[in-house]
Amino acid sequence: MSTGLVGTGLSHGMRADPQHAAQAVAQAIERADIECVRGVVLFLTAEYAEDPSPALRAAARQAGCMQVVGCSGPGLITDQDWVLDSPGAAAMVFGDPISLNPLMKGENDKPVLSLCTPQGLTADWLDAPLRRVGAVSADLAARGPFCVWSGARVADCGTADAVIGGVEDALSVSQGIRALTAPIEVAEADGYEIMRLGNYPALNVLIKSLPAGTREMDQIPLHLLIGGVTFGDPETAISEGRYRLNHIISADSTNRSITLSHPMMRGDRLFWAMRDALASERDMAAAIERARGGLSGEPDFGLLFPCIGRGPSFYGNRDRDVELMKARFPGMPFIGFYGNGEIGPLDGANQLHQYSTVVSLFRSYRH
Description:
Blueprint: E1 6-12, H1 19-32, E2 37-45, H2 53-63, E3 68-73, E4 75-78, E5 82-83, E6 88-95, E7 99-102, E8 111-116, H3 123-126, E9 131-136, E10 148-150, E11 153-154, E12 159-165, E13 167-174, E14 177-179, E15 184-190, E16 193-197, E17 200-201, H4 202-209, H5 212-215, E18 225-230, E19 243-252, E20 257-260, E21 269-275, H6 277-293, E22 301-306, H7 312-315, H8 320-328, E23 334-338, E24 342-346, E25 349-353, E26 357-364
Parallel strand pairs: 2-3, 8-9, 22-23
Antiparallel strand pairs: 1-6, 2-6, 3-10, 4-5, 4-23, 7-12, 8-12, 9-24, 10-11, 13-26, 14-21, 15-16, 15-21, 16-17, 16-20, 18-19, 18-21, 19-20, 22-26, 24-25
Helix pairs in contact: 1-2, 6-8
């Protein structure tokens, strides 16, 4: 679809050739049908991470624009396809009146594309009073060379921020879990350790909530189980997506407690949940609708940031998140990458999500 505003391109092959970046930008310009590029989002696969500079220069030359912002990642996404198994580049270009600009002081009310490496991710950066949308440039192990760039140059600080101008935006997060219980009040907790939920030991509540087949397994699959911490009205928090995931670290069969990845306090509301492909698919459809409902009309483009642990390997060699976006907005350009940590606001602050997909939709003020 030619919007005259935004376009995407995707190029990949057998090796990490800088020409993939130039070809992706050229495709994006052609699809957008624009003459003057006002910004480029460029994502490269991990094979480029050791030295992305030649690809960045190739993209900037092709676009005639130095405002090239992006990062490396284990896989790429556009509205055309997703790539996980070959070196390549994905690009999105913007034409007037949409722009991609350096972050300036006092621009807290505008959407900010926010990218970082594991080393660049700090509390001070994440907690800045900005409307961030983005992800962490890393795989599930958070190892290997990963980098971010801005102004067509590698950002040694490990973070890259760019304001998306000329648009209204709406963001939603699909945390993709199946709730096993309703929110239950934490009756006893000591930091990361939950001893009692309501009137019962925390581990007993978890085991009782498991599906029959899972409950009868020799070992509880803790890697598939997650806690959800609600905020606001607990009666509607799960259906409205008002919760933060709190991952299970371990369970103690002696004192029947559970240790979580983030500390809890007495009086918090916690529910047990399970990672599930069908539930994730349904939740993603709902998240897309929530984002669409935040705009005054149909979106012109989108950003999509799924966890690498929720990509095609989770959905059975398909990416249902991508398919749902394409089905809901046929022809709409969108771009993203698979990372390890998804960034977006929740409960009035920026959050680092896990095993989730952040979707952000944008509509030009030109309408």
